[in-house]
Design a protein that fits this description.
With 309 residues, the chain is of the alpha/beta class. It has two domains: 168 residues, Nitrogenase molybdenum iron protein domain (Rossmann fold, 3-Layer(aba) Sandwich), CATH 3.40.50; 114 residues, Rossmann fold. The chain is built from ten helices and nine strands. The strands form two sheets. It has a five-stranded parallel beta sheet with strand order 1-5-4-2-3, with helices on both faces. Strands 7-6-8-9 form a four-stranded parallel beta sheet, with helices on both faces. Helix 6 links the parallel strand 6 and strand 7. Helix 1 packs across helix 4, helix 1 crosses helix 5 and helix 4 runs antiparallel to helix 5. The longest helix is centred in the middle third of the chain and has 25 residues. 43% of the residues are buried. The structure holds zinc ion (ZN).
Length: 309
């Protein structure tokens, strides 16, 4: 069994090849899905080889591993993942690694919240959105919690490869500057809004809502691939009227007819929020990052909630 650690790593491990005078990629890091992968590259820089486990274009919730990926996890010096059954196959693979693999469950580094109850009367799929202990997995959508998780990564890499601890710190400080700026932008931009209620089809924004004084109301049954059920629409319309909600946030671009049906029924606009559960290869090539998507999400929140900073 591998050593499972929280934010602080107690043992020191000789990383493969860490004696080869700090050459590029001497520590191998398996990162469970996109935002974690980007942060690991940010902290590790040239010193680590980061292997992304969830392929570009796929979401993390239901990822299924090829034997090759299981091998990459088992062979890694460090595995960064979110546990509590968020990605059961990733956790199983990490559980099969030996003592020379450090497995870090980044959920141990942050305060966890229970999932927000779904709006009564809305029907639909919610698979993989609730972790063991009924907690919400979407910690990465809160920049402040991302900062805490990055610090946990610095601790782990510095313990694993102590000769390069100074470089990990320097790399992390540069990466964190971006996240600290993002947190400040969110705080300022969302300070004064006509509505503080985020009605969303993907229950992914609970941590973000808590951090910036918003309230998330998750709705089910409004997805781009399904006709919305009339009772679901009615429940959303009632809540929207009661809460002064003028915008419903969907996960992906809904087809125009669905968008029209929902908007007509509830008298609201539709907007998009990206849960950053996976970037496509194209997005990565274009330079899209965690921070650029978070800024787009912020613009849409500001517009949809009527914020005036
Ligand atoms: Zn999700």
């Amino acid at each position: 069994m591998p050593v499972i650690v929280a934010a602080i790593v107690t043992g020191t491990f000789a990383a493969c090849g860490s004696d080869d005078d700090g050459a590029s990629g001497s520590v191998s890091v398996a990162a469970a899905f996109y935002p974690i992968e980007e942060a690991a590259r940010g902290v590790g820089g040239d010193l680590v080889e980061v292997i992304g486990i969830t392929p570009p274009g796929q979401g993390p919730h239901d990822v299924q591993l090829e034997p090759k990926q299981v091998e990459e996890i088992v062979d890694a010096d460090v595995v960064f993942l979110l546990g509590r059954n968020f990605q059961p196959e990733v956790e199983d693979a990490a559980g099969g690694a030996g003592d020379d693999t450090v497995v870090v469950d980044l959920l141990d580094a942050v305060d966890l919240l229970p999932v927000d109850p779904q709006l009564a009367g809305t029907q639909g799929e919610v698979d993989g959105e609730v972790l063991e202990g009924d907690v919400d997995p979407h910690v990465w959508l809160d920049p402040a919690r991302m900062i805490t998780m990055v610090e946990a990564m610095v601790d782990t890499l510095s313990e694993t490869d102590p000769d390069n601890a100074g470089t990990y710190r320097t790399n992390a400080d540069a990466y964190l500057e971006n996240l600290v700026g993002l947190d400040a932008e969110y705080r300022t931009a969302l300070a004064e809004c006509e509505s503080r209620v985020v009605v969303t089809s993907h229950r992914a924004f609970g941590y973000l809502a808590e951090q910036y004084g918003l309230r998330q109301i998750p709705i089910a049954g409004v997805s781009p691939d399904a006709e919305p059920d009339p009772r679901t629409l009615e429940a959303i319309a009632e809540e929207a009227a009661a809460e002064g909600v003028t915008t419903i946030f969907l996960e992906e671009l809904a087809p125009p007819d669905l968008a029209e049906t929902v908007a007509n029924e509830i008298g609201a606009e539709l907007s998009l929020l990206d849960p950053i559960e996976g970037l496509t290869g194209e997005q990565i090539e274009e330079g899209t990052s965690y921070a650029t998507i978070m800024r787009e999400n912020l613009e849409r929140l500001v517009a949809g909630l009527g914020c005036t900073a």
